[in-house]
Amino acid sequence: MKTKNKSKLMSHMILSGKAPSLPSLGSHFQIPDLFLAPKLPARRARTPLAVRPLTQMEIGGLDSDGREFRNADEMWREEVGDGDHQKKSQWYNKGINYWEGVEATVDGVLGGYGHVNEADIKASEEFLNTILPERFPDAGRGRHLVALDCGSGIGRVTKNLLIRYFNEVDLLEPVSHFLESARVNLAPENLMVSELHKAANFYCVPLQEFTPDAERYDVIWVQWCIGHLADDDFISFFKRAQAGLKPGGLFVLKENIAKTGFVLDKEDKSITRSDSYFKELFNQCGLYIYKMKDQKGFPDELFAVKMYALTTEMPRQEASCIRQKSEGLTL
Q1: Which of 239, 295, 302 is nearest to 118 (CA)?
Q2: With the C-alpha atoms ordered 141, 145, 1, 77, is the resulting torsion angle positive or negative?
Q3: Concatenated DSSP letters for 201-257?
Q4: How far apart are CA 242 and CA 220, in angstroms?
Q5: Distance of CA 163 to the CA centre of its chain
Q6: pLDDT 10s per residue in the chain (331 long)?
Q7: Cα(173)–Cα(153) distance, integer angstroms
Q8: What is the spatial distance between Cα 322 and Cα 315, in angstroms, rounded to a whole number?
Q9: Hey, which of 23, 51, 183, 287 has its CA 20 to 30 A from 204?
Q10: Cα–chain-centroid distance for residue 173?
Q11: What are the UniProt keywords, alphabetically (predicted)?
């Protein structure tokens, strides 16, 4: 839905006088001493123990004030509590309140970077065109394609991309004035598509509360909004949303990427996760990466952006490798 740039984070570090040791600036966090194995006495030799590598959720991160966290659990306990419904509601309300103060324009929803719109749509369209012929070869010949645009904002992605490829697009957006703008932008008289393509439904519902109709969607598109969800709600959303996919349907997630760990934006209450962090969450959601691709052509001061096509079934090549390994073990 929106981009976050690193210049804001850098300014916090400069003002606070702290060294820029953040994942988004290319350096790595040091593992605290308490994670290091104690040295064994030299007089007694022992067989070395296998050390489990830290997962991305266990690797440190920081917030936009420059504060460092030892791991994601520490950050989430502070931000949303541990089973504290009121504290989690405050997290989501602050995020909504932030975007309620943003103008309903392309420049507004893109955080002042409206000029990346063209590069964003171009890369997304190229990615979509590598997926649709493989997953839906009968599209336009008997298959009525339907998409859900999550975090749709003013309908930017729907108008510039999705509505040209899908017969119906539903929009999901919790910020009411963005959604009202989307209704205007996507009115038939403001579109240059045939009457066979339309924006069908407009849902003013937060992502973490939405449950789609069963088997309605061929593609559920999630862009620049999943960072507002806590990890448990991220997993719950994708598990619920799987029921909304038609047979053969899939998710497309397009999101900012931290170099390692995570970066918490205190202002709009969102988190930028690393690629490895996302992959751990995908695994917990029961999702598999069908394709992925890096966004190109964005200014250097912005976070890297990656696109993932996610399926509920294991890709054939991966399944074949697992089967071959299993057969090898039984010989």
Answers
A1: 295
A2: negative
A3: EEE---GGG--PPTT-EEEEEEES-GGGS-HHHHHHHHHHHHTTEEEEEEEEEEEEE
A4: 9
A5: 21
A6: 434 444 443 333 323 333 333 333 333 334 344 333 444 444 444 444 455 566 767 789 999 999 999 999 999 999 999 999 999 999 999 999 999 999 999 999 999 999 999 999 999 999 999 999 999 987 767 789 999 999 999 999 999 999 999 999 999 999 999 999 999 999 999 999 999 999 999 999 999 999 999 999 999 999 999 999 999 999 999 999 999 999 999 999 999 999 999 999 999 999 999 999 999 999 999 999 999 999 999 999 999 999 999 999 997 766 556 555 655 655 5
A7: 6
A8: 11
A9: 287
A10: 15
A11: Methyltransferase, S-adenosyl-L-methionine, Transferase
Is residue 208 within 8 A of residue 229, CB to CB? The reply is yes
Residues 6+ apart with CB under 8 A from 265: 4, 63, 64, 227, 271, 272
Pull the structure tokens for residue 16: 């606070």
What would the CATH number be for the domain defined by 73-311?
3.40.50.150
CA distance 175 to 166: 24
Q: Characterize 182-192 residue by residue with b for buried, 16 or more Cβ atoms within 10 angstroms of its Cβ, and e for exposed.
A: beebbeeeebe
Token pair, residue 30, equals 């040091």
234-269: buried (b, 16+ CB within 10 Å) or exposed (e) per residue? bbebbeebbebbbeebbbbbbbbbbbbbbbbbeebb
The C-alpha atoms of residue 331 and residue 324 are separated, in whole angstroms, by: 11
Question: In the β-sheet with 146-150, what is the strand arrangement from edge to edge?
Answer: 198-203, 168-172, 146-150, 217-223, 245-257, 304-311, 288-294
Provide the Cα torsion 255, 176, 172, 198; round to 10°. Answer: -110
**For 218-258, how does the pLDDT look when each residue is reduced to its tens digit (9 = 90+)?**
999 999 999 999 999 999 999 999 999 999 999 999 999 99
pTM: predicted TM-score of the whole model, two decimal places: 0.82
